[in-house]
Write a structure and sequence with these properties.
- With 455 residues, this protein is an alpha+beta fold.
- 50% of the residues lie in helices and 11% in strands.
- It has helices at 31-36, 38-48, 67-76, 88-94, 103-113, 119-139, 148-165, 170-192, 205-231, 238-244, 255-286, 288-302, 316-328, 360-364, 383-387, 407-424; strands at 19-20, 51-56, 59-64, 81-82, 145-147, 335-339, 344-345, 348-349, 355-358, 425-429, 436-438, 442-444, 449-454.
- The chain has a six-stranded mixed sheet with strand order 1-2-3-9-6-4.
- Helix 6 (119-139) crosses helix 7.
- The protein is globular, with a radius of gyration of 23 Å.
- The termini are far apart.
- It binds protoporphyrin IX containing FE.
Length: 455
């Protein structure tokens, strides 16, 4: 018979319990606190525990702060957790592309696109990435004033248009880029504003603009696809690879699917990468010691030549700068899943329909996993120290089956662009704190202006 001191009684039968979160209001729950400052709200939830209950309007929610539990959600996505509907804005632009698709449809698409972003393929896009950065570096001059956000956005857009669609005449790049810009801006507004809470059928001026932008994107993509098909020759861009991809039963992607996947890769990859670079310049400007260590590595590894894919593995400090930037300013700052019947977290049952939230922002700034978390310290990612970091304490690219398909692309692109530009210049970002704004990606809340300094 058990006694009160029996150690078996100290182990809860269903794993750790959920902790109640901050008190909410009737009907709206914690929505006002979340809406006012989502990042601060997630940090508050984290201070309450590792598995915290709260309410988003009428929806029952759970917030997870502990990497083991985060890993459970991410690796169980598709099996016991559904991805939430991304809303009408995304669907209008991305059609039924991989980001929007679910279940078998998603699996088929993901497996058809995956080969075109494998390391060997990404290596073939690296020369274009570096060349675009060199074009920009050739235009910069000592003392020039720049808008960092605009410069990085134009740069990654050029790279996306060239590596995904294989077009490089200024007219093509501009037409495609302009339509994508409008679509992305409007998706961001809908996502961050009230639009996302409105039913799909409600017409709004923003939604009308999204439809118009999507129509232009359709026409542009069709034109480019037709040119690829007519051209016949093998080209090194992503679109060409999608055109020849076939699934297990030998079926290629349809015209519609090719359009959707190409646009999904563009939207998934462009703003996330440019935002990461913007924050990297901000952090480098505020941390001269790190800036010098980066310059030292670039001089040592590259001397006076431009970097190529073969340098990616050698630029260990540049890679650490990008990882540390993604820790402090993760472009994607939250992921949610919706519990299916029978879902559990930490051995505890989670009621069907419960929304489970994890936030890169909150976990990446948890002092338990990252001592002095506010400090920008790329040394955290040194070989040994980096290996000791829990797989899901740092998850800027998500994890599990839905992990970012462009992880390698994004890392290679960020490191090469930083290497090309920081080898020749430093950016003196104007003084003053810049706070992150929670839109589709974590953006600086105002223009980031800087003076270019030749090294
Ligand atoms: C620093 C840059 C990037 C960051 C921080 C980032 C982050 C993420 C995250 C967190 C997810 C998972 C979302 C979820 O589970 O709900 C994701 C998915 C995705 N990303 Fe990225 N990403 C980046 C760059 C890219 C690039 C360059 C591409 C394309 C070349 C890309 C294409 C995609 C696609 C298509 C998905 C959906 C995958 C799926 O649902 O199977 N991303 N990304």
């Amino acid at each position: 018979m058990s006694t009160p001191t029996d150690p078996a009684l100290d182990t809860p039968p269903h794993g750790p319990a959920f902790t109640p979160g901050p008190k909410g209001l009737p009907l709206v729950g914690n929505l006002p606190q979340f809406g006012k400052d989502p990042l601060a709200f997630f940090e508050l939830l984290r201070s309450r525990g590792d598995m915290v209950r709260w309410r988003f309007g009428r929806n029952r929610c759970v917030f997870l702060a502990d990497p083991d539990r985060i890993g459970e959600l991410l690796t169980e996505t598709e099996r016991t957790f559904d991805q939430p509907d991304l809303g009408i804005a995304f669907r209008t632009v991305l059609g039924n592309g991989m980001l929007v698709a679910r279940g078998r449809d998603w699996r088929r698409k993901r497996s058809l696109v995956q080969p075109s972003v494998r390391p060997r393929q990404v290596a073939s896009y690296a020369a274009t990435m570096a060349a675009c950065a060199v074009e920009l570096a050739d235009r910069w001059s000592d003392g020039q004033r720049i808008d960092v956000k605009r410069e990085m956005s134009t740069l990654t857009q050029r790279i996306a248009v060239r590596t995904i669609f294989g077009v490089d005449t200024p007219a093509d790049t501009e037409a495609m880029g302009r339509a994508m810009d409008v679509a992305q801006l409007e998706i961001g507004k809908e996502f961050a504003g009230l639009g996302a809470l409105l039913p799909d059928w409600v017409p709004t001026p923003g939604r009308a603009r999204i439809r118009k932008a999507a129509a232009v994107i359709d026409a542009e993509v069709r034109r480019v696809v037709a040119r690829h098909r007519d051209g016949g020759e093998e080209r090194p861009d992503l679109l060409s690879r999608l055109l020849t991809a076939v699934d297990e039963s030998g079926m290629p992607l349809t015209e519609e699917e090719i359009r959707d996947e190409a646009v999904t890769l563009y939207i998934g990859g462009h703003e996330t990468t440019s935002t990461t670079l913007v924050w990297a310049w901000y952090l480098l400007a505020r941390n001269p010691r790190v800036r010098e260590a980066l310059a030292e590595e670039l001089d040592r590894v590259l001397g006076d030549r431009e970097p190529g894919i073969e340098d990616y593995a050698r630029l260990t400090y540049a890679r650490a700068v990008v990882k540390e930037t993604l820790r402090l300013y993760p472009a994607i700052w939250l992921i949610t899943g919706i519990a299916k019947e029978g879902a559990t977290i930490g051995g505890r049952p989670v009621e069907e329909g419960t929304r489970v939230w994890v936030s890169q922002w909150a976990t990446h700034r948890d002092p338990r996993w990252f001592p002095e978390p506010e400090e920008f310290r790329p040394e955290r990612w040194d070989a040994e120290a980096g290996d000791a970091i829990h797989e899901y304490a740092w998850f800027p690219f998500g994890g599990g089956p839905r992990v970012c398909i462009g992880t390698r692309f994004a890392m290679v692109e960020s490191v090469l662009l930083l290497a090309v530009l920081a080898r020749r210049f430093t950016l003196d970002v104007d003084p003053g704190e810049i706070t992150p704004l929670t839109g589709l990606t974590l953006q600086p809340d105002r223009a980031m202006t800087a003076t270019v300094r030749a090294r």
